[in-house]
Amino acid sequence: MKTSKQWWSEVKSDEAKLIEWLKKQYHGEMTASDRIEQFVYARCTDTRHAATLKTIAGQEKLHALWVGGLLTMRGVEPALLPTNTRYWDEVEGAAQSFESAAAVAALAERMRLQRIKVIAEDPDAPEDIRAVFAKILPQEIWHEQAFREMTTETALTEVRAAHERGVDSIGLIMVSEVL
User: Is 3:175 a contact under the CB 8 Å cutoff?
Assistant: First the structure.
């Protein structure tokens, strides 16, 4: 289990790890839009929330294009991966209602924000990567806030155990665990 800073320090200093992570990031951004539709949008009956969800899904695809550009500049063709979904396997069953699906999304965005912030604020990160993640960061902050506005404290409490199992499954230590 590693903090985001520990993880990033290892990844940025090893070109092979960096490429593998960018591939996974591209895959994750591409599939995020589909996950939003599967986990949240399919359960949404509020037109204002639906419009917000469409915007978020579009921004996730834009993030994938930006990360794809980072891969292309490194001579790697961006592609979806045949990958397991350890985190999502743990949380999928918790998303039974619109509010619980939004809670899962809010917690997932919060988790991702830690890593994105570390990268965007790292003066020693490769400049192109830092620049892309500096553009992604404010949109991801908004995504997390938007999902929190769509959910309730009760739903967040109900899905937290599944989220924590998901975090454990990917070996991430959350900032709150080390403070």
Answer: yes
